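Standup notes
- HV: blocked on the assembly model, inputs below
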Amino acid sequence: MSRSESLVSADWVEQNLANPKVVLVEVDEDTSAYEGGHIAGAVRLDWQSDLQDKILRDALNKADFEALLSSKGISNDDTVVLYGGNNNWFAAYAYWYFKLYGHDDVKLLDGGRKKWELENRAQTTDVPNRPATKYQAKDQDRSIRAFRDETIAAIGSKNLVDVRSPDEFSGKLLAPAHLPQEQSQRAGHIPTAINVPWSKAANEDGTFKSDAELEKLYADAGLDTSKDTIAYCRIGERSSHTWFVLHELLGHTNSKNYDGSWTEYGSLVGVPIEKGA
Amino acid sequence: MCGAPAQTPTLPANVDVEKETVLYGTVTKDGAPVPAAYVRLLDGAGEFTAEVVTSATGDFRFFAAPGEWTLSVMHKSGSVRQPVTATGPGLVEAKLALS
């Protein structure tokens, strides 16, 4: 993958608003954002109620993912353009999810909802009516998804990239600071992980930095691109953002997202935890 | 509103302000509250810690920790950057005026 295949600009989206093969999808944690206004034609995916299994802590299974996309009127050969709030965290999570189930043509809107709003581009409250489809997903591509045992085995051998803020990495905070800090898991990080906060890969308007800046960022932090890489955060959404940078923008195809992330790892009995910077 | 209590943020019922360090306040422009402004919380080293969007009444809120912080606001009508210090757990208010 490369930047031109996986990322589109706001101008590109405006030029393709009437393109019937392009489906805009807003993905948010805060569902009221979409109701207040969204890009014309965009359908909504709710990170919590649409993209999580209702009972298990897991991604939707294949059949449920097919039912979800069919109900949203998304076809296998559509170009899906994802965007959202929180600097595209949940849109990047959805991007990883679409790739997990083998959707070929999926892109992120660079800068997401924030850049769109800051540039005062048009929004609507009209909800599109897309006829249902029969979406067919592929089996999960486990080459982009890491589980806990593989993550524990990676200590000291693979690249572990902790993309949380420095205060979460050191153990001072247990969650991003827009959330309450009382949490059940232990604080700290996986031993031998490097800390490259997701935010270092983005500009303040939410757009991604240039490929040259991104390569330098991870090289300076000690990422050895000859080794496999596992990215993690707290719940797997910010690490999707970094997975997107590593796997899609920079073409490091030996990169996985550990979506269990700190809420799983920090709750495991007996696994090693390191504190401090 | 003579004698009205100081404005405090509406917090979820399970939040204990004896333990949580809550940085909160309002973003305004020419005295009027600004909804949908992007408020960033930066740590003592200037590193991104969190970001929220102001409510319809221009309010924002962070759960941080004692220490030195910076608040940085972006909106289509202006921006502002302001330091804030939390000396211990409890409520810390910051008033941010866009220019």
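- HV (later): unblocked. The mean pLDDT of chain B is 87. Chain B touches chain A at residues 12, 14-16, 19-20, 23, 36, 38, 40-41, 43, 45, 47-53, 61-65, 72, 74-76 (CB under 8 Å).
- Next: hand off to the docking folks.
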